[in-house]
Structure formats: structure tokens, C-alpha cells
Amino acid sequence: MKFGYKWIVAIVVAASIASVAQTQEIPSPDRAEEVADQHQGCMAGMKMPGCPGTKTQGKQHDDSDSMGMQPEDFVQSILSHTGSGTSVEPVSTPVPMLMSMKGSWMLMFHANIFVLDEQQSSARGGDKFFSTNWFMTMAQRKLGPGVFTARAMLSLEPASVTNRRYPLLFQQGESAFGVPIADGQHPHDFIMELAALYDLKLGEKSLLSFYFAATGDPAIGPAAYAHRASAFENPVGTLGHHQEDSTHIAADVVTVGFTHGIARIEASGFHGREPDEFRWEIDQGKIDSWSTRLTVEPRKNWSGQYSYARIASPEAVFSSENQERMTASVMYNRPFHEGNWANTLLWGRTRSLQDNSIFNSYLFESTARFRVRNYAWTRIESAERSNELILGENPLPPGFQEQPIGQVQAYTLGYDRDIDLVQHLASAIGAQVTTYGVPGSLKTIYGARPVGVAVFVRLRPFSGRARWPASVNRWAQGHKDSRARRPDGEPG
């Protein structure tokens, strides 16, 4: 894909968001709160006069019914476009955000910001003060027979993560200036996504979707770790990132998807090389890789996906090596009174098409929110590591061949609690501890029981008078009203 295509997409997205901003000034906090409250009262599936989606006197709801509202089914969940790329989570998953109407446009903004200090034991461990963060803006409106969405996702990590990495024991899979990054996670690009989407309903249960991104996320894997509800309180990356979801920032992405009922099939073309060292720039390259993904959401609380990809030359230090990738995942989300429980079980596998070396990773994440302000989470991983890790951050010797040397386990537990500092900004203070299971081949380098500790402040915008997004407020009220009839709440 040539340079012109990339900037056509960029200009379309930027112009759409700019035109929206010019239609009306950003409302005051009180006005934003009023808008959010209006949308809490006009939810999809609620038959209320004057609300979108209500059938009154022969009027049928149209494709724009689901914009900005808590989804009631799989098609509406896709239309909300609150995940990374075209990925989706269970329908019941809450998404905290700021939301406003500007004429015919629905504007949304959500973000996750961590400022943390990481301390690690082991000779390979590191200590660092840094910030991980992302910010997503979205503008959505009815256009012709369908719904148009413009979306931009940014990160300030190129500035807030110095020296092109933050400490993450046993992490590998990236490089900078021809040298592997070992025991560290690279920062995200400044422009994580710049995309235009168009959805066309083909009936009550069918949807045809198109996704064009100068930088974006092709149809591989579940939602990337930074955007999963099950990982929303965890400030650092996963060890299996490069087997599971490292393509979430890819160049020149084109995706088409078809949804019917509870199932969705997608196909993507994209440029396979991962972002380079220059994180402030927009990378580009021809479409040389492809992927396909099947997603099934049988009930509101469940989602599963299987994806397969052929990726051309993903790593700069192994530029002649192409890769096959497979992922499978199951997500379960359950709202409950004053809380929510989000879970992900994920498998990722890469195979070199040059020498047939295979790397597997396995992950389980779970985050529980309880009594409104409290969060507790865990992440359990087992990720295959290669002999490249033994060399550390040194140039690879001539003729080096990467081979698996064993599985590393990581066990993380964390807790944080929201405090009130700024209106419409959920602020939390928290900490997490990670311990590791080390294979024999690496114990002489890392020791038998390395540990990592992170202490952080987390910031996240939310709208409305209530701290919860509208979806959970509504569910909790329904739970109270029907407790005598359904004591266990909404069935899974």
C-alpha cells in the first residue's frame, strides 16, 4: 500500500473529527453530565418515547440506533466500536468514557493513564519511573444507508517511557537499532490507530463492516491487552504479547467483516513489519500479510474467537523470516450489584516459516470491581522463551538461529481503589506484585525466584453523575428491582 492511501485515510479521519469539533464548543462538565444522563435514560432495548430504537407509530429503528448506547446484542456491540481495531468483548462489558452529542455526531473519548514506579529483583531486573497510557477519540454518525466512524488512538509513551523500554523481566520479541530488547517492553507508537470504519446493516441480525486504517489493528486475536476489561487495571504488558496480540499497531490495515446472529467472520490485509524505533512517526509499507478471525458471542456475557495469520517479516532482526500465528480466546464478563467481573483465557502460537520453530503462550486474566471503588486482579501466564534472551541486549552473532528454551511463568496480583480528585476523572492508587517460575536453563542468569513490584496512580475519564458507565448503572437497578424474582442476577 502506497504513501498516498495512508494519508488519505489520515486526512479523512482528522477532517471528520475537526468538523465535529467546530459544530459546537465542548460542553461544560454540567452539560456533559446532562448529556450522559440523557443517554442513561435512552438505552437500546428500552421502549421509551423519543428515544432511539423505540418503535412508535410505524417508525422502525435504523442503523444508527446503537451509536453511543449500551449494546443489547452482538450487532449493536460491534457498532459501538469501543475496542481495539474491530475486536469485540462480551456484550455486557462496561466501557467508561466521556460522551456528547454535536448535532448529528456522537462524540466519545476514553483513556487509561498510569504513572508508576517499577522495581524488580534479579541481576536482569530494572527499576524505573515511567507512564503507560493511551487516549482514544471517536466520532460517529449516520451516513447514507450505514454508520460512519472516525477513530484516533494516541499514546504519549514515546515521551513517558525513556530509553525505548520499561522493565519487564523475561520479555522479548522487539528490537531497537538492530539490537534485541531483552527484559523490557517497548513503548507504544504516538499514533496507535488512525482509522475510518463503515457499517451497513443487511437486516435485523446481519452487518457488513469495513475498516481502513493508516495505523491500526487487523483481525488477529482478542482485544489487545491494553484495551481488555480483564487487564484494565494492570499497568504493564504481557509476556505473551508477541504470540498473542503484537499486531495491534500495524501499518496499512484493510479489514472486511460479516456478522450474522451470534457469529462474525473477518479478513484483513496489512503490512507485517512491527513498528520501528521511531515511535513518533507513522510507519508505512505494502500490504504483504493477511489474517482471518471467527468470533462467536452466544450470550451477553460470553465471547470467543479463533484467528489465523500469515505475517511477512515481522521482526527487523530476523528480516528474512515470515511467521504463522494462531490465537484462540474465551472471554467472560459478569456485571453484579456495585461491581463487574471480567475474565480472559488466551492461547497464542507462532511458527517460523523458515525453520519451523514454534513458540506457545498461555494467559489467564481476571479483574473484579466491587463496592464501586475497589479493583482486584490477577494475571497468570506461561510463555515460551528463546535462546535470544540468554544473549541479553547484545548484537546477535552471525548465523544465530532462534530456538525455544523453555516456558517462563508469571503470577501477578494487584489492587487499587478509586479516589475523587477531579470531576469526571476516576483516580486510583494501587500496587501489584509479580513472581516468576524460571526454567532451569535461565536460573543461573535470573535466579530461582525473581520478583517485580509496581506502585502506581491510575487516571481514567468517566461521564454522568454516577461513577459507573450507564450499562452497569442500569443493570444494577434492574438487579435491585428483580432480586426477589432472580436472586442470582442476569444468567450467564
SSE blueprint:
Layout: H1 3-23, H2 29-41, H3 74-80, E1 98-102, E2 105-120, E3 127-143, E4 146-154, H4 157-160, E5 166-167, E6 174-176, E7 179-181, E8 184-185, E9 191-201, E10 206-216, H5 241-244, E11 250-260, E12 263-271, E13 289-296, E14 302-311, E15 323-336, E16 339-352, E17 358-370, E18 374-386, H6 388-391, E19 404-422, E20 425-437, H7 440-446, E21 451-461, H8 470-481
Antiparallel strand pairs: 1-2, 2-3, 2-21, 3-4, 4-9, 5-8, 6-7, 9-10, 10-11, 11-12, 12-13, 13-14, 14-15, 15-16, 16-17, 17-18, 18-19, 19-20, 20-21
Describe the protein.
The protein is mainly β and 492 residues long. It has one domain (3-481): Porin (Beta Barrel). 15% of the residues lie in helices and 43% in strands. It is built from 8 helices and 21 strands. The chain has helices at 3-23, 29-41, 74-80, 157-160, 241-244, 388-391, 440-446, 470-481, and strands at residues 98-102, 105-120, 127-143, 146-154, 166-167, 174-176, 179-181, 184-185, 191-201, 206-216, 250-260, 263-271, 289-296, 302-311, 323-336, 339-352, 358-370, 374-386, 404-422, 425-437, 451-461. A 16-stranded antiparallel beta barrel has the order 2-3-4-9-10-11-12-13-14-15-16-17-18-19-20-21. Strands 5-8 form a two-stranded antiparallel sheet. Strands 6-7 form a two-stranded antiparallel ribbon. A hairpin with a 2-residue loop joins strand 1 and strand 2 (105-120). The longest helix is centred in the N-terminal third of the chain and has 21 residues, at 3-23. It is globular, with a radius of gyration of 22 Å. It starts with a helix and ends in an 11-residue tail after the last helix. The model is unreliable at 1-68 and 469-492 (pLDDT under 50).
